[in-house]
Amino acid sequence: MSNDSPPPDGPSPYGAPEPGSTPGQTPGSVPVSVRRDNPKALWSLILGIISVPVTCLCGFGLVIGIPAVYLGWQARNQPTGRGMAMSGMVLGALAIVLGVVWLVLLASGVVDTPEN
């Protein structure tokens, strides 16, 4: 078979798109909506990431870690953002544990605050 012959007349073997459909869309299908992530899970992750260094630098990670765990707990059963929620909860819990250990060491006199 040579490539010099013209294409056959008639409908395309793949079918023509239906009027009003967008390219790449299967004819007769419903357009898929844009996936939206869970904002509580996103904020849990952001606060969890921020809480660990803040705890290590100045010990105030408790203030940020508690909302990270709370938001992650609320967002864990949503259809999207489960990984972000779990990561935020773990990082927030780590910051809380580090903050409590820091406060215990500070209260017992093992660690002194800088005199500056």
Short structural description:
By secondary structure, this protein is an all-alpha fold. It has 3 helices and no strands.
If you had to describe this structure to a student in words, what would you say it looks like?
By secondary structure, the chain is mainly α. The chain has a domain at 39-108. It is 53% helix and 0% strand. Helix 1 (39-58) runs parallel beside helix 3. The mean pLDDT is 80.
Please identify the oligomeric state: single chain
* Low-confidence residue ranges: none
Whole-angstrom Rg: 28 Å
Structural class, by secondary structure, is mainly alpha
Number of helices: 3
Give the beta-strand count: 0
Features of the shown structure:
mainly alpha, 116 residues, rod-shaped
Layout of secondary structure:
Elements (H helix, E strand, L loop, with lengths): L38 H20 L2 H15 L6 H27 L8
